[in-house]
Specification:
The protein contains 4 helices and no strands. It is an all-alpha fold. It has a domain at 32-111. Residues 1-50 are annotated as: Disordered.
Length: 164
């Protein structure tokens, strides 16, 4: 049986024989650090989720108010269509206004999570329509932003002719 050298002389460097309890402490420290990081990440995730929910609820309120304004404009346009083209065409504008107003009421009446679930279900059932709708909304928003920028530029420089 080989005899073990003393700790001071083994391989020229001191050897420390740690008890089994101390050897496990490093692993325990790593585990507790990982648990702490996991807990903090969970807290941050919860805070982010709450903020996102608050922003979504605020956005829903603003969107439903904007939709109400669009519905009012559509109803006014329906009256103009009645006068200019005829009541049979004005009913389409009124129908669109009622649909928009109903959608605004739906936005107001549902919690954010339920709306997200509804949108997810719709996208899963009809991805082509969802992509087309997103493209159309993006196009309309881009046109609105561009017209707003053009209008602001026209107001800012009265010497230039208006874009049109």
């Amino acid at each position: 049986m080989a005899r073990r050298k003393s700790p001071e002389t083994e391989g020229g460097a001191p050897v420390i024989d740690a008890p089994a309890e101390e050897a496990g402490t490093t692993g325990g420290a790593k585990r507790s650090a990982a648990d702490t990081i996991r807990d903090e990440a969970g807290k941050l995730g919860s805070q982010a989720k709450e903020k996102a929910r608050a922003y979504a609820e605020d956005g829903m309120g603003k969107a439903s108010s904007a939709l109400d304004e669009v519905a009012k404009l559509m109803k006014g346009a329906a009256d103009d269509v009645d006068d200019r083209i005829g009541p049979e065409y004005g009913k389409y504008a009124r129908s669109a206004a009622q649909g928009i107003s109903g959608f605004a009421d739906t936005l107001r009446g549902k919690p954010v999570e339920e709306l997200i679930d509804d949108v997810s279900d719709f996208v899963k059932k009809s991805p082509v329509i969802a992509i087309g709708t997103a493209a159309a909304v993006g196009f309309v928003l881009a046109r609105l932003i561009k017209s707003g920028i053009d209008a602001a530029a026209d107001l800012g420089d009265p010497d230039e002719p208006a874009n049109g």
